[in-house]
Design a protein that fits this description.
Helix content: 25-40%
CATH architecture: Alpha-Beta Barrel
Radius of gyration: 21 Å
Bound molecules: zinc ion
Oligomer: single chain
Number of helices: 14
Shape: globular
Largest sheet: 8 strands, mixed
CATH topology: TIM Barrel
Strand content: 15-25%
């Protein structure tokens, strides 16, 4: 058994000091004893480390490249799409593995314990499957083996170019599968993660109501069973209009009326919701998978967080396009969006929980169910998914209790993160991933190759 001693720790029942935590070889928390003298591996302020609920790893390599306007000023996606198409023509499995490892390394260094990878880049350029249909899934799994980050792999079913079932466009053919091909891919992807540590998970991801046939959702739910099922839901206004025109219902109304919902269902980008949709979906138990930095980058709009929380809704956060991977910034962006819209302050806080505490608790709980990970709190029997803040960071000096979390989230940054464990694997020490040098150099090689191409 490995022991970790922390000056302070946020446990299931609140803050404690001088805490000694025992971790089993399987990565589970076996014992928690406050009030012990420092011994063995020591750290600062120990917190539960949440799962990152939504990522498309390969997009990390495009970060910062899509900020120019195209010939039509109203088409703000033009440069993004053009770049994406050129980029997709070049990406090899080796590139994808190097990028995914780099992304997971950055996630761990930001304080996330697990990567829920919404994985849709399946085929060769031109759309022909690889000889091994799960080639790319295996590359994501290989990245996880390198980084030690927990993985919940969500192979994505992507079949059509829109609600009218038009064929995929040239930029989409590497994503496409019929329902039968997807079912096969899902089975092969399940095998691809079999050699990873036992905390890895598989799930199902129908891409969106635009990219699959709505009548196939029952099949997706069957494959998912008790595993997670994630879907992009209501990100942009044009998307909502397209779905309403095709199905006679807005996307949130559609899933409320047709799907069995529970806390293993995670809907990504619940941005475009009317009040009755927010209330209904919050009460359904489904998790809203929020990606505030990407949603800001794309100009999607603002999640109705105040109403969502008032109705007991669950949330998780993800980094989606990975334009910037920062846990503290995701939470700060989420909270500030509410303030800017409502001309309010601390709108998500409650009488007994500050903003920082409320959000950290919420994303740990929602992230755990959305990723099917036995984590979310520091308690005996849970995975040792833990992050530790540096108690010597200047913004934390003299701070106690939940104020620590507020100072980290609003005045601090991810550089405060000193140690991170994923299922007991101690992958970040002194603020850096233990394999940082090798992972960065593989990523740099990839970026040089891609840079010449795009
Ligand atoms: Zn996404």
């Amino acid at each position: 058994m490995v022991s970790v001693w922390a000056e302070k720790a946020l446990l299931e029942n609140g803050w404690a000091e001088n805490v000694l935590i025992g971790i089993s070889p399987e990565g589970l928390i076996e014992s928690i004893v406050p009030g012990r003298a420092a011994t063995g591996q020591t750290t600062g302020i120990l917190l539960p480390a949440p799962a990152n609920c939504h990522s498309h790893a390969f997009q990390r390599a495009m970060a910062g490249l899509t900020e120019k306007r195209g010939p039509n000023p109203s088409d703000s996606f033009w440069t993004w799409r053009q770049l994406m198409f050129r980029f997709l023509d070049r990406l090899t499995p080796e590139h994808v593995e190097a990028i995914a490892a780099f992304v997971q390394m950055e996630m761990l260094e930001a304080g996330y314990s697990a990567n829920v990878e919404f994985h849709y880049l399946h085929h060769q350029p031109g759309g022909v499957p690889y000889a091994n249909v799960a080639e790319m899934a295996e590359r994501i799994a290989a990245a996880s083996a390198t980084t030690g980050m927990g993985l919940t792999l969500l192979p994505v079913h992507y079949q059509y170019g829109g609600c009218d079932k038009r064929p995929l466009g040239p930029g989409q053919v590497r994503f496409g599968n019929t329902l039968d091909a997807y079912t096969e891919l899902h089975a092969r992807s399940t095998e691809a993660i079999a050699h990873l540590p036992t905390d890895s998970r598989i799930g199902v991801a129908p891409h969106s109501l635009r990219a699959i046939a709505a009548e196939d959702l029952a099949h997706h739910a069957d494959i998912a069973g008790a595993n997670p099922l994630h879907m992009h839901l209501a990100e942009q206004i044009a998307e909502v209009e397209e779905i309403e025109a095709a199905h006679g219902k807005r996307p949130v109304e559609f899933v409320l009326d047709t799907m069995e919902l529970n806390d293993r269902r995670c809907f990504i980008h619940c941005t475009q919701m009317l009040p009755h949709e927010t209330e209904g979906l919050a009460k359904s138990g489904a998790v809203a998978g929020l990606c505030p930095i990407t949603e800001s980058s794309l100009g999607d709009g603002i999640f109705d967080g105040v109403r969502w929380f008032e109705n007991g809704g669950a949330i998780a956060v993800g980094s989606d396009s990975n334009i910037r991977i920062s846990l503290s910034e995701e939470l700060r962006t989420l909270d500030y969006s509410q303030r800017l819209r409502d001309h309010s302050r601390a709108a998500l806080a409650t009488p007994d929980k500050s903003t920082g505490r409320r959000l950290l608790d919420a994303i740990n709980a929602g992230g755990a169910t959305a990723s099917a990970r036995n984590n979310g709190v520091l308690a005996v029997g849970k995975l040792a998914d833990m992050m530790a803040l540096d108690s010597e960071a200047v913004d934390l000096i003299g701070r106690t209790g939940d104020t620590i979390l507020d100072c980290y989230m609003f005045a601090g940054e991810d550089r405060m993160v000193k140690d991170v464990w994923s299922a007991g694997r101690h992958m970040v020490t002194h603020g850096q991933h233990i394999k940082r040098e090798a992972i960065v150099s593989a990523y740099a090689r990839t970026m040089k190759e891609l840079g010449e191409a795009i």
